[in-house]
Amino acid sequence: MAQVLDRQSVAANGETNGFTVVGQSTKRVDALEKVTGRALYAADVSPPGMLWGVFLRSPHPHALIKKIDTSKAEQLPGVLAVITQESLATDQALVVEEEMHATRRVQTLFAQDKVHYEGEKVAAIAATTKELAEEAADLIEVEYEPLQGSGHVLDSIQESLPVINEGTELLDAPADNPWGVTKLNNVAGEHHSVEGDVAAGFAESDRVYTHTFYIPRAHQTYIEPQVTVADVDVGGKVTVWTSTQGPFGVRSNLANSLRLPTNKINVHGMTIGGGFGAKFGGIVDTYAVLLAQKARRPVKMVYSRHEEFVDGRPAPGAHITIKTGVKNDGTIVARQAWALWDTGVGQGGGYATMRTKGVYNVEHFKFDAFDVNTCKPAPGAYRAPGAPQATFAGETQLNIIAEDLGIDPVDIRLKNMREGDQIAFKETLQAVADAAGWADRTSGPNEGWGVAVGEWTNGAGPGTAVVSVHDDGSVHVFSGLMDITGTDTAMAQIAAEVLTVPYDDVTTVRGDTDSAPFATGSGGSVVTFSMGNAVKRAAEDAKQRLLELAAEHLEAPLELLELRGGAVVVKEKPDESVSIAQLAQFALRERGGPVMGKGTFASQPSATTTAAQIGKVEVDPETGKVWIRELYNSLDAGKAINPMASEGQMEGGLVQGFAWGLMEAMHYDRDGHNLNPGLLDYRLPTTADFPDIASVIVEEPTKNGPYGVKGIGEPPIAPGPAALASAVADATGKWIMELPLVPERVYRATHDS
Amino acid sequence: MKRQITLDINDQPYELTVENRTRLLDAVRYAAGLTGTKEGCSTGDCGACTVLMDGAPITSCLTLAVAAEGKKLTTIEGIGADGTLHPVQESFMELGGLQCGICTPGMILSSVALLEDNPQPTADEARWTLAGNLCRCTGYDKIIKAVLQAAEVQETAAS
């Protein structure tokens, strides 16, 4: 049975459901080094003799390259390496592989005969200073012959548009497609699914609604740009210090791209300044290594913010038409979606169209989705990849239907939500409705409320952790896990819980890929679920060893022993006990060496969680400016190992979702030129744009997560755009189906009559 | 053209060789080796490079190093440097006002300056004052709560 977590009572009682450390909002293990500026990020690494590397990029979104002449750049004193696709050895890296959940790309390292997007890499230069490297880049002569490009999926699919990726063939469009075409041009991938019979479902519905939604590309906009420092020793061993969510994935990508064995590559995952799905390697690391190989010196490459916007791996935009049939009582009967995903020169994302189904019983469901090439960089993962886009369409339309039927938006959801083992959709929605006072909500002039829910099921990934008990009783947790969100803190809490030691006695240590056993990358909300299991098993392994040592030390039968309060005691004989420090010393000096436990997790399924969000807005009728006045959100965490950290995920994701609805969009012209490649014009939310946030944690444990944990990093981004658009509609009476809801768009929508 | 300058950073003199065009950010990070100051955008939009100049927060990416001569500079390494953390640092740790930490040095410096200027800010005043420091992880709620708690702690300590 799902429980609503009472944070104040946890704080007051100091324990939850029999746990002592799990469930506490401890400070992050890395809090001190971060508030004092001592945490080391990849850009803070500067090995002796280090060079700076920069890129030369295409100014055109689509053009033929007629000539590249690097001779003047190579002759500039202080320039130690210039590389282009042509200069690469054929047995070296000709392609770069970038792989992350939901997307995969294999593309040539540099453009050679043709550029496919503005910002595509044409050359890379390493020099003794960054200024010299930039000067050298200016000296490279490239002759282009511009071609017509495409900045929009609705243009790209037309037969009259040029093919962007060579070899792409025309595809037959679905017979019932809403785009008015028979053939689809520039399709990079397709995804289809059918459950039931939608035609029959629409026929038996009382009402059928069709709407089209457009959500633009958004950039993950981690505040730390992509960065790698690379060094290559005389034996060819590669060392990189990089900002990544997955050091082992970076190692694999480098091994594949550079044709190097794994043991010739060591990756240090430095403290990461945000990733949100976009930092799995390939964007700079391969190039930094190639320059270091050629220059025989360490090379640092740091993306500028401009480079982030023209050659990052942002979330794909999506053009989604959705048709839903319902009974007059609000029961959803059938839903069908057609989607074009703006995947730039890459692919991946379209499958997320399945999320238009939502958390509801939908007997008849079908979608046809296409990844469509445009003259833009390939897409990457962004927190719950594809979910905000699909949820915007599905959840906004559900609110339109509720309004049309005169049913409360919360009630129509409760009516249709799936129920089942280990899921708590209804309880989670009810929790946020209660927190917001939804049933008794009031609105002043120009104010409105919106609600939406999103869903996600965390993945699982393999990993091993090692837990050591030292001779003073302190505990070390060692793994290759990359912490972004506070997972090291959760690991320390889990180890402390199992070994019954104080949280402050546990230290978590992240190894580089040479020293640490494999750990899954930190994406897909896998970490606390997967590595939490590995750490729990490692701590339990160490605990078993302590109990066996104690059996010898106390000369008592194993089954009468228990570990509590940092000591092994004989049940019913509390006088007979031995501390784990004593046991660790005993082991070290007399019994077979240090106390160390190992835990491994491969893969087990989790259960679906849901994030439910409610926003109240006020719209300025004079300007169209939308002010978010109140925000409420709930999430089923399964079990919150650290409620404060869980709220951090909920609130961070919520603001990213609402901001995608409110202000964020990558703008391109018809050919694909990026029109807002900087933080002045790509507006990120600030403290002044958002109000206080009320967060409610619901706990419906999953069987396979440690202590019932569900992965929660991703779902909170999904509902925001739909909740916001619905609140604006409630305030203005206008449903706006294209994002973001910047003042101009809201003004036009509310003044066009 | 290179020149020698002396910068007063965290009450210590730093004799540095810089170019006329060298940004204060690069002088602090690379010439002085104080890497707690971060670079996020290079255009003065994100606030990761915030340092205090004569107590006021500035974006060091838009300031020339030579323009900082004769000024009193404070970087994150100068906050809580006497071994006692600043109440802002304490409350950020306690209330979860940080995640990835890349914005944290700038955010803390701006918060310290805010409380110097306005020891008892309202939530709205804090929100409008800190709007120059972008954070992508937290959603800001816990940062604002941390700043307000630090103000309370300072008030209690002063009375």
Describe this structure in words.
The complex is a heterodimer of chains A (753) and B (159). Chain A is α+β, with helices and mostly antiparallel strands. Chain A is built from 18 helices and 31 strands. Chain A has a 7-stranded mixed beta sheet with strand order 4-8-2-17-14-15-16, sandwiched between helices. In chain A, helix 16 links the parallel strand 30 and strand 31. In chain A, helix 10 packs parallel to helix 17 and helix 13 runs parallel beside helix 14. The relative contact order of chain A is 0.13. The mean pLDDT of chain A is 95. Chain B is an alpha+beta fold and 159 residues long. Chain B has 2 domains: 77 residues, Ubiquitin-like (UB roll) (Roll); 72 residues, [2Fe-2S]-binding domain (DNA polymerase, domain 1, Orthogonal Bundle), CATH 1.10.150. The longest helix of chain B is centred in the C-terminal third of the chain and has 18 residues. At the A-B interface, helix 2 and helix 16 of A face helix 2, helix 3, helix 4 and helix 5 of B.
User: What is the total tally of β strands of chain A?
Assistant: 31
Q: Report the uncertain regions of chain B.
A: none
Q: Helix content range of the residues of chain B, please?
A: 25-40%
Overall body shape of chain B? globular
The radius of gyration of chain A is: 27 Å
The greatest interface here is: A-B, 58 and 55 residues
> How does CATH name the architecture of the largest domain in chain A?
2-Layer Sandwich
DSSP strand content of chain A: 25-35%
Work out the strand percent of chain B.
15-25%
Record the strand order, biggest sheet of chain A. Answer: 4-8-2-17-14-15-16
Number of strands of chain B: 5
